[in-house]
Amino acid sequence: MTPAANQYLFVYGTLLVAGNPYAAYLNQHCKFIKTGRFKGRLYDVGEYPAALADRSSRLFVHGSIYLMDEPDKTLTFIDQYEGITASEPAPHEYVRVLLPIETDTSALTCWVYLYNWPVEGLSKIVSGDYRLYKEQ
């Protein structure tokens, strides 16, 4: 994967769930900055969500922005969780891209894991908020 010149990571799904060991890793090696969102759609894949960016969407995907203390190390670790390492068969279910994430005061460019497979047949999470969706 691409080296991490950017130190910000935006997460919107299971990496926000307490008890997830990868979420625990993020909390140990990253600093929560603030919440944010990007224009797009969120889907329920079953045990986790799938986000697609779409600048023309009226919907948003909501999540949290983290500042990584060691971006290359952290992203390598999270790449394993997301199944996008070189040892995984292609096409990968997710891709890691840089996206502008809107916050209450500005926009930050962050690494985001976006879904890379077809979404036909998946249920849309209209709120765009995975944690809220799981609580309901």
Which residue ranges are poorly predicted, with pLDDT under 50 across at least 5 consecutive positions?
none
The proportion of strand residues reads 35-45%
Q: Could you tell me the radius of gyration in angstroms? A: 14 Å
The SSE order reads EHEEEHEEEH
Number of domains: 1
Structural class, from secondary structure content?
alpha+beta
GO molecular function: transferase activity
Keywords: Transferase
Domain Gamma-glutamylcyclotransferase AIG2-like: 9-131
Pfam family, one: GGACT
Overall description:
It is a single chain. 30% of the residues are buried. The radius of gyration is 14 Å and the shape is globular. It has 136 residues and is an alpha+beta fold. 20% of the residues lie in helices and 39% in strands. The chain starts with 7 loop residues before the first strand and ends with a helix. Helix 1 runs antiparallel to helix 2. The model has no long low-confidence stretch (mean pLDDT 94). A hairpin with a 4-residue loop joins strand 5 and strand 6 (107-115). The chain contains 3 helices and 7 strands. The chain has one domain: Gamma-glutamyl cyclotransferase-like (Hypothetical upf0131 protein ytfp, Roll).
